[in-house]
Amino acid sequence: MLTALVERIRREGRVLPGDLLKVDGFLNHRLEPELTMRMGEAFRERFATLGVDAVDLVVTAEVSGIAPAFATAVAFGVPLVYARKNRPATMPGAVLRADAPSRTKGGTTPLFIAPDVLGPGDRALLIDDFLATGLTIGALAELIHRAGARLTGVGVVIEKSFQGGRAELDSLDVPIVALAIVDALDATRGLLDVREG
Asked: Domain limits of the chain?
């Protein structure tokens, strides 16, 4: 489906202690526009084959989820809503909030969405960069639910299958699409076991 993504992970991915995967050269720091837009198209195609084609908006968390979520929103022709990690002064009054543990930063990160950008009846597709433990995606799904919107599916660029996130999200009862799946990491030898999703 997206062989170029798997090849980039194999070639440029670096394994860090704590089962972290560094892919800053094309996903989390530097972005390759052509590859990113192909990710959005791949999500559109994969979800269409699963019967998910009625989407009103795409939801993600800032910052690293924005690029693949934007590409997916373009592919679907719908708006993108991203949860903010800091509540800005331009978001007064009642807000939707959920807390997500952060493996890369440590601690817990609050996620905020204004109720005027996501609301009852919206069909939301959730897109993020990684699926590891599933806790951040679970927090985003909670925000969608609190807004009265309906979650239609979850898409991730890279799933670390050995960390159990997919099982954590089973209760969401929606299709989960991963463009690339990492089945094992070895920090001492720098090895990746990665395949197309």
From this structure: 3-196
